[in-house]
Design the sequence.
């Protein structure tokens, strides 16, 4: 019963090939004479020790998906597998046939075929093909098999230049349970066939390559696909907001302290943290190599947290009492930064100029000799005050007389001057200290963002 059904099916298949003659009778006689004694488990060589050369061509129809987190590439296409079966040959027109039969289609379940398997499959190491596949068989013994395949292969991801990255994925085949001396895999082309290829919306196919190699006396054939990510979606939704947030973080130090700059800095820090978690979900869990963009965002998160801490510190300085004394070294640094010493020299020069102008005006008034002698006599006759004691004598502080400022407050020489530098401490307030620190860190964060962009973002764009 089974053989009857098989012959009926073969008659239907043959009707697509032969168009004249007694098709059914010719086909039944042909199949019985050629394949009645054929054993599909026999190695397709007259001498069983000879090698079977199997040639492969891969027709890629499309890239379904590339999951870089799982490291899985899904492709759709079909293989063209060719080999020669010396046990399934016949004359061009067998005896008793009304027409010549040079080729026909035989179900693969009735023939020997190379047990091909995808070595780097992520699902299972199963032999490709289906029992419903047909093999084109010629009277010379040439067989051609075109199995449709949906392949899920493992692919090692390199996220270094994400989202401008280029990945190379391989589809490696071998003849299962056969060594190279039995079955050798060869390629008919040097590239993957793209006759029916449909471009992907996420990945661009850049190049293909076919590599034939062997290991441990086993023949392998690798179809290599080089694909590049189309980065527009990631640039608009990820890279651009990150760059803008990094720029806005620097302007924290220009906000008025009274307008809640600490809240702004904390909001920026939380936003960077959200983007970091989003990128981590889009990349494989690997540290060798790690994406430049991931390193950039981690540093940005650290910088944003540091900006929040510095903002709290400057607010605390700004809210201090202006009457509280500033440490000498801090005042000296702020004085140098704010050029207080330069302004002091300018004031001295202005005072000297005003004194010279006043002296010249007095000379131009013209006093008479009698008036000048009278003034000298008056000055000599007027009682002179005793010499005021100095604040120190022979290098020892004078306890009888202490220097006072204009408001009557005591001035300590040790607090107003740095002895080993011989520099007078400038008069600055806490508000000036806070504003100066803001300017320093504003310029510092801009410089830091520039350096980070040069080392982490520029290489990504250049290699693309």
Sequence:
């Amino acid at each position: 019963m089974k053989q009857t059904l098989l012959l009926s099916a073969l008659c239907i298949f043959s009707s697509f090939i032969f168009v004249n003659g007694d098709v059914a009778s010719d086909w039944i006689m042909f199949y019985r004479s050629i394949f009645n004694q054929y054993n599909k488990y026999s190695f397709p060589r007259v001498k069983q020790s000879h090698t079977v050369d199997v040639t492969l061509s891969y027709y890629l129809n499309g890239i379904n998906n590339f999951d870089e987190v799982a490291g899985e590439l899904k492709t759709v296409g079909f293989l063209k597998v060719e080999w020669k079966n010396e046990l399934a040959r016949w004359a061009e027109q067998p005896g008793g046939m009304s027409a010549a039969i040079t080729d026909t289609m035989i179900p693969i379940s009735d023939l020997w075929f190379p047990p091909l398997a995808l070595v780097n499959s992520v699902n299972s190491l199963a032999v490709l093909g289906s029992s419903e596949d047909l093999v084109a068989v010629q009277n010379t013994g040439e067989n051609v098999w075109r199995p449709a395949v949906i392949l899920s292969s493992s692919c090692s991801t390199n996220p270094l230049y994400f989202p401008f990255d280029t990945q190379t994925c391989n589809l490696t085949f071998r003849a299962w349970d056969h060594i190279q001396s039995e079955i050798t895999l060869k390629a008919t082309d040097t590239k993957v066939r793209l006759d029916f290829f449909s471009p992907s919306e996420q990945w661009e196919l850049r190049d293909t390559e076919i590599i034939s190699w062997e290991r441990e006396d086993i023949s392998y054939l690798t179809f290599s696909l080089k694909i590049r990510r189309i980065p527009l979606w990631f640039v608009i939704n990820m890279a651009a907001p990150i760059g803008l947030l990094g720029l806005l973080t620097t302007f924290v130090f220009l906000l008025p302290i009274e307008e809640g700059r600490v809240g702004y800095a904390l909001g920026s820090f939380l936003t960077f943290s959200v983007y970091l978690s989003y990128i981590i979900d889009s990349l494989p869990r690997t540290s060798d190599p790690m994406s430049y963009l991931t390193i950039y965002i981690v540093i940005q998160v650290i910088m944003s947290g540091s900006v929040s801490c510095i903002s709290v510190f400057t607010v605390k300085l700004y809210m201090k009492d202006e009457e509280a004394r500033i440490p000498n070294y801090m005042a000296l640094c702020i004085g140098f930064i704010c050029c207080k010493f330069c302004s002091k020299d300018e004031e001295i020069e202005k005072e000297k100029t005003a004194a010279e102008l006043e002296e010249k005006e007095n000379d131009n008034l013209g006093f008479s000799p009698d008036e000048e002698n009278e003034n000298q006599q008056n000055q000599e006759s007027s009682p002179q005050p005793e010499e005021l004691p100095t604040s120190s004598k022979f290098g020892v502080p004078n306890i009888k007389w202490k220097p006072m400022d204009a408001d009557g407050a005591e001035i300590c020489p040790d607090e107003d001057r740095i002895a080993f530098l011989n520099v007078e401490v400038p008069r600055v307030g806490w508000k000036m200290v806070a504003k100066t620190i803001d300017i320093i860190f504003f310029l510092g964060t801009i410089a830091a963002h520039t350096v980070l962009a040069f080392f982490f973002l520029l290489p990504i764009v250049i290699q693309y």
